[in-house]
Amino acid sequence: MGKKESRHFTREFKRNAVQMIIEKGVPAGRVAQELDIHPNLLHQWKRKLMADGNDAFIGKGNLKPEDSELKRLQRELEEVKEERDILKKALGVFSKRTR
Q1: Is the separation of the CB atoms in 15 and 49 below 8 Å?
Q2: Considering the domain boundaries, does residue 53 fall inside one?
Q3: Is residue 86 part of a domain?
Q4: How far is it, in rounded angstroms, from Cα 28 to Cα 35?
Q5: pTM of the entire structure?
Q6: Of 12, 27, 45, 68, whose CB is crowded by the most CB atoms within 10 A?
Q7: pLDDT tens digit sequence for 54-67
């Protein structure tokens, strides 16, 4: 038995599939069959869209705005810690010289 090849779907494809269920009232099973996808995948997309709204399906490797901000702040904190450590070492060096 061969392994099924992984398929990737665009953000618009996912949104349109879910909108067929929500807005048009088409049963999820029928939408899944028409689109040749598993019904569980369609339900998963629906949950994601309902939970994340416009931030749903941002793409592989992309972060939600709040996650992006968190990552930026973590990098900034690491830089500040490095600067602090350098200043501590410099203070130690200069204080030894004055003795």
Answers
A1: yes
A2: yes
A3: yes
A4: 10
A5: 0.55
A6: 45
A7: 777 776 666 677 77
